[in-house]
Write a structure and sequence with these properties.
alpha/beta; about 160 residues; Conserved hypothetical protein from pyrococcus furiosus pfu- 392566-001, ParB domain; about 30% helix
Length: about 160
């Protein structure tokens, strides 16, 4: 499955390994490789968007056209229905692949925790019609999608168009 002698410890910047790793070096390296794969996918998507002339960024949530929201509580949400972001549309593409290298440390830690089965806080989403927009939890959604999750627990607030 996964062999220790194939690990590339020097692939992490400045040979530093995050403190949360502890005894979980295998999960750390798996998460780090998964991040690199997702970054490559983001770059390929960006090139593809130049050929197709389609924007592959997350949809921005324009709150000016929305009225106040109703709290819907914590519920599982299908990741494919999450279409945009309240504030971070330039950090992830529309498939939640990370667009920036500076997301590596946080993304890798979250991916590693997910691989280990550690519970993470629910993401915060805004529901507008049938679509969801991320308020908080972009990295968790990105890692969950990369790991093949179909649903994610979310604190949902439903907003109505004005």
């Amino acid at each position: 499955m996964y062999e220790l002698h194939n690990l590339q410890i020097n692939s992490y910047p400045d040979n530093r390994i995050p403190d949360v790793m502890g005894q979980h070096i295998i999960e750390f390296h798996r998460a780090n490789r998964l991040f690199r794969k997702q970054r490559r996918m983001a770059m390929l998507n960006r090139v593809w968007s130049l050929f197709t002339r389609r924007c592959l960024l997350l949809k921005p949530l324009t709150s000016a056209a929305l009225s106040s929201g109703n709290y819907r509580g914590v519920q599982p949400v299908e990741i494919s229905r999450i279409q945009g972001s309240e504030s971070r549309v330039e950090d992830f593409d529309n498939q939640f692949n990370p667009l920036r290298e500076n997301a590596r440390e946080r993304w890798t830690r979250i991916g590693m925790l997910m691989m280990m089965g550690e519970p993470l806080p629910a993401v915060e989403l805004i529901q507008v019609g049938d679509e969801y927009y991320v308020r908080d939890g972009h990295h968790r959604i990105s890692a969950a999608r990369a790991l093949g999750y179909r649903h994610i627990d979310a604190v949902v607030t439903a907003w109505q168009p004005a």
